[in-house]
Design goal:
about 140 residues; 8 strands; 8-stranded mixed beta sheet; binds zinc ion; 3 helices; Cytidine Deaminase, domain 2
Length: about 140
């Protein structure tokens, strides 16, 4: 179970809608105990592709996020991006590029912009398994 503070979740959705139809991306940092993940901090990262169907994190911002998380004694546990026009399921490319088995991958779908859907997955060796999460 991944627990996300409501204000962080709201900001992610707001950012995804603001940047529509471009993809957004970022990390969530927190603490993991066993299978419980408590998210504590949001690290939005610029999508250097500024594209509607793919993203590439700005490597400088990515490095800053790693450093800040380390300073706060948090781990980057979730990597998220938006799917402006497709469903909240990893694309073939998402699966191919998901090389970090310690990360959860979250996808925000704006296929229906009035009703954004966010889902979380473990992606390991090409296998996709949905994870439960809650915002509170
Ligand atoms: Zn994707």
């Amino acid at each position: 179970m991944i627990k996300i503070p409501k204000d962080i979740y709201d900001t992610m959705i707001k950012d995804a809608i603001k940047e529509y139809p471009l993809e957004i991306c970022g990390y969530l940092g927190g603490i993991a105990f066993d299978k419980e993940i408590q998210i504590l901090k949001h690290f939005p990262i610029s999508n250097i592709y500024k594209n509607e169907t793919k993203f590439m994190m700005d490597s400088h911002e990515q490095f800053q996020a790693f450093k800040e998380a380390q300073h706060l004694r948090l781990r980057l546990l979730v990597c998220y991006h938006s799917h402006p026009k497709t469903s909240a399921y990893p694309s073939e490319e998402d699966i191919r590029l998901a090389f970090d088995e310690n990360l959860n991958y979250m996808i925000i779908s704006l296929k229906n912009r009035k009703k954004p859907i966010m889902k979380s997955y473990w992606i390991q060796k090409g296998k996709v398994k949905e994870q439960e999460w809650i915002a509170f």
